[in-house]
What does this fold into?
Amino acid sequence: MKIQNTNCCCCGNPMERGLADWHLQCCRCGYEAAEFAPTINRSQSHVLIDEEGRDTGLKNLRMANFAMLLARMAAHCRRGASLLDIGAAHGWFVKLATEGGWQALGLEPDHAIYSQAAASGANVREGFFPDALQPGETFEALVFNDVFEHIPDPGSVLDACKARMAGAGLLVLNLPSSRGALYRISKVLYRVGVHGFFERMWQKDLPSPHLHYFSAANLTLLCGKYGLACVEAGTLPSLHIKGLYARIAYVKSGLRWLAPLIWLAIILAYPVLRLAPSDIEVLLFKRPDGSPGG
Ligand SMILES: [Zn+2]
It folds into this structure.
């Protein structure tokens, strides 16, 4: 069923109704979107998350992946390059980048999280991208770690990125993939009536749900519309056994009783899942019209 007045942001094809009444998909390029209304009571939906559990669960996976990501970025940037981490959260990436010799700055709009990051010694500034930047402030690398899929209007953000890249720059998008094995399993389960896993993949009912699921191909199409060319596409591991249980169990909803079963299923399937397409994609883009090093 075609949706009125909604065209795919990547290829322009009319979007069609997907699996759920809030889920849309493009049958030409595979882009997927969610029509989640903004959370009315932010503090109430925060109650759904076990913040401490989420911390432990995600930290092991993220730190290992951040180190791999910085190594890939280093192949495209000079040593000591300036870097802006947009949506820096607890400042883990900024601190790791600073230790690795980058001139790193993080932007974090949530006041409480910004304060924690600043207190931990990370070089962070409070505010949104690009409003929190000085006029003419540019960076050699702009990084979105698990942030781009939450942005309501990715086109205007890509425009702002292009304007804030020094020279040819480097734009790094680290985000969930619609080609990932876990995501595809969640869609199969949804079709047979098990909705919780698919809703969890979209972070439905959480304070900041996912609004997009891209693949390397349709994300390259989207960025191409804003004059950004893909220079490297790859994946990062989406599953680490250490901290997995805390990660699954961090939602304090009625579905929490399912956590041990989901954990067991993933552990049993781990040897196969390791070889299956990863649920995290990383794409690196440059401005072909920017003068290198300028
Ligand atoms: Zn499309």
In short: The longest helix spans residues 51-74. Residues 40-50 have pLDDT under 50 and may be disordered. Residues 181 and 273 are 7 Å apart (CA to CA). Residues 8, 10-11, 13, 26, 28-29, 31, 218 surround zinc ion (CB under 6 Å).
